[in-house]
Amino acid sequence: GAAGSFQRLVLAQDTGSAITGAVRADFFTGTGEAAATLNGLSDFNTATGKSITATDIKYVGRAGTAYAESATAPTNAGKYTAKLTLTGVKTSAGDNKSVTASVDYEIAGTATEERKTEEEPLKKVPDELKSLYSNVQQIEKKLLANLIINGQAPAPGQTVFKNVELMISHDGGKTWVKATAEDFREGGITVEVDYPEGTNGREYLFAVAHMLTVAMNGMKAGDIENLKW
Fold first, then answer.
1. Which residues are paired to 118 by β-bridges?
2. Cα(142)–Cα(207) distance, rounded to whole angstroms?
3. What is the C-alpha to C-alpha distance for residues 167 and 6, in angstroms, rounded to an integer?
4. Considering the entire predicted model, what is its pTM?
5. Which one of 18, 25, 115, 224 is separated from 160 by 20 to 30 angstroms, measured CA to CA?
6. 167 forms bridges with which residues in the sheet?
7. What is the three-state SS of the chain?
């Protein structure tokens, strides 16, 4: 396959004379979630008296990659930061200190990754919004309040409500799954939806309001953004 960069988190704990010579790090390499997991933790714990496990390493998205801090290593394409915090460390600033080591890295997309959107009439409240809305009419009312065309709200009967989902395939389109927040690329994505029946892009003006079902980019589920048309 094509060559690519390989970056992983390495921490050398300075406890005075405990570390001598070159710093050595062992990695497990491969595919899937395990590819982002440090190996050699047993030797590290023996040398330092610590009890570090793989779940002590935290991963979080950066630079537009939506990935909430988690002990689970990401596998989708994007930019991430991995970090490890140790407590009770002897440093030049004193004993019993906390130190954190971190590294930024990127998972490149694969040539077999494909994306598509699926749309259907909004007939039920999405599962992610059920704690905020009890029926579809409440969602429609909220969306209507954010639709403005030439300074005016659309007249009754001039709106269409759809549930649009981004689907993603990592095997060239053989299987499809609903995209998660981390699948949304930095700078946004382009979504194509059909014109409402009886309309077109030449004779009609449109406004589009999008209600998020998951938190991302500083917005929370239920927030509304007005999209470029």
1. 165
2. 14
3. 28
4. 0.49
5. 115
6. 116, 178
7. CCCCCCCCCCCCCCCHHHCCCCCCCCECCCCCHHHHCECCHHHHHHHHCCCCCHHHCEEEECCCCCCCCECCCCCCCEEEEEEEEEEEEEECCEEEEEEEEEEEEEECCCCCCEEEEEEEECCCCCHHHCCCCCCHHHHHHHHHCCCCECCECCCCCCCCCEEEEEEEECCCCCCCEECCHHHCCCCCCCCCCCCCCCCCCCCCCCCEEEECCCCECCECCCCEEEECC
Instruction: Kindly report the length of the chain.
Output: 229
Low-confidence stretches of the chain (pLDDT < 70) are 1-41, 43-44, 47, 89, 91, 109-111, 185-188, 228-229
Q: In the prediction, which pLDDT does 16 show?
A: 47
What the block records as the tokens of 49 is 């008296």
Task: Report how far apart, in Å, the C-alpha atoms of 107 and of each of 11, 52, 187, 202 are.
Answer: 21, 25, 17, 41
Question: How far is Cα 48 from Cα 29, in angstroms, rounded to an integer?
Answer: 24
Instruction: List C-alpha distances in Å: 23 to 11, 39, 135.
Output: 9, 15, 59
pLDDT score at 37: 42
Rounded distance, CA 197 to CA 199, Å?
6
Instruction: Give the residue among 227, 108, 114, 127 at the shortest CA–CA distance from 179.
Output: 114
CA 123 to centroid of chain Cα atoms:
27
Alpha carbons 36 and 28: distance in angstroms, whole number: 8
